[in-house]
Design a protein that fits this description.
The protein is built from no helices and 29 strands. By secondary structure, the protein is an all-beta fold. It has one domain: 7 Propeller (Methylamine Dehydrogenase, Chain H), CATH 2.130.10.10. The strands form seven sheets. Strands 1-2-29-28-27 form a five-stranded antiparallel sheet, with no helix packed on it.
Length: 345
């Protein structure tokens, strides 16, 4: 982890309580434990003004962090140790939305402006473009399954897949129309290889059946009607966690028992946008209504809210790596990270 050497002059640091006099380093063999609320620390990093960072993904090097500079038509790379940002231009008309890191270590981008999947080589920064075969999909989010196949969503009503071992830049990528039309947003792949997506406008969880050509989709409806399922993330067991934008809730779907549960976020008017599950299987959400990041502990069913220091931060996506939870503050042109401030260097 890198947070203990972040320069305080480059970003705002918020520690929610005083650090203990002496922390205890965690042994790698010790199971990860949910940090107590008073140990959570939060820090922000500015990116170039006007970037409007939308999604964020820790890089494969374990140090830097990718983000989509949606309004700049670029992919950004933040070095938290120095605060420096490198940007890679993706092409004329680019408007990148999502970014994830593939098994190849490269950054893979859903670019709604180019109507294409875009690969950025982590070493050479070479940009490869994979255009969609059909009209504008309004590309949104992507996920790799355990076999290395890339799945993605388009809000205009499509889901698609790309196999990096056979696809060639410039060749058209096929998509499949989704039930209830427009709305596909978040997507995730479980450890056992199943792929699920959520539809914001359609208010359902979709399970992709990869067999057949084209592949099929099974709809699963959460208990709350018109809840606005926005993003979805798998935990280590393959249980799914969903942010419900319209309802201000987080939902859990257990595919092994076909069982649902829902919890309303704290506050008077929560708006659950992003969702991410960390290495402890704790669930993180962004709440636009309260301008906070929220941690939900499934074991205790308890929420902890972390106020964001920037008004209207609008964290639209959360990602992370062990010990760090990252978000993109699209409304403040910053990235934000949360870590356990009670751990010793």
């Amino acid at each position: 982890m890198i947070h203990h050497r972040r320069p305080l002059t480059l970003a705002l640091v918020v520690l929610l309580a005083a650090w203990p006099a002496a922390g205890v380093a965690r042994s790698p063999a010790t199971p990860p434990v949910t940090p107590p609320e008073e140990c959570l620390a939060l820090q922000t990093y500015p990116v170039p003004a006007g970037d409007h960072p939308h999604d964020v993904a820790p890089a494969a090097d374990g140090e830097r962090v990718w983000y989509t500079a949606q309004d700049a038509g670029a992919l950004g790379l933040l070095d938290p140790a120095t605060g420096e940002v490198e940007r890679v231009k993706l092409g004329a008309g680019s408007a990148p939305h999502g970014v994830i890191v593939g098994p190849d270590g490269a950054a893979w981008v859903t670019d709604s402006g180019l109507n294409a999947m875009v690969r950025v080589d982590a070493e050479t920064r070479e940009v490869a473009v994979y255009p969609l075969a059909d009209g504008n999909a309004n590309l949104n989010t992507a996920a790799f399954d355990p076999q290395g196949v890339l799945w993605f969503t388009g809000q205009n009503g499509v889901v698609g897949r790309l196999d990096p071992t056979t696809a060639r830049p410039g060749e058209p990528v096929e998509t499949v129309a989704t039930p209830r039309g427009r709305g596909p947003y978040g997507i995730t792949a479980t450890p056992d290889g199943r792929v699920f997506f959520v539809s914001l406008a359609g208010s359902y969880l979709g399970r992709i059946d990869p067999n057949g050509d084209p592949f099929g989709i099974v709809m699963l409806d959460p208990p709350t009607p018109d809840q606005g399922a926005r993003r979805v993330w798998t935990d280590s067991r393959g249980v799914l966690w969903i942010s419900e934008w319209n309802a201000g809730q987080v939902a859990r779907y257990d595919p092994f028992h076909d069982a649902w549960a829902e919890w309303r976020l704290p506050g008077d008017a929560p708006q659950a946008y992003a969702v991410y599950v960390d290495e402890r299987d704790d669930v993180w959400l962004s709440d636009f209504g309260a301008n906070t990041l929220v941690r939900f502990d499934p074991d205790t069913e308890r929420f902890v809210s972390l106020p964001l220091p920037d008004p209207g931060a609008s964290v639209r996506q959360i990602h992370g790596r062990p010990g760090e939870v990252w978000g993109a503050e699209s409304g403040a042109d910053k990235l934000v990270v949360v870590w356990n401030g009670c751990e010793a260097e």
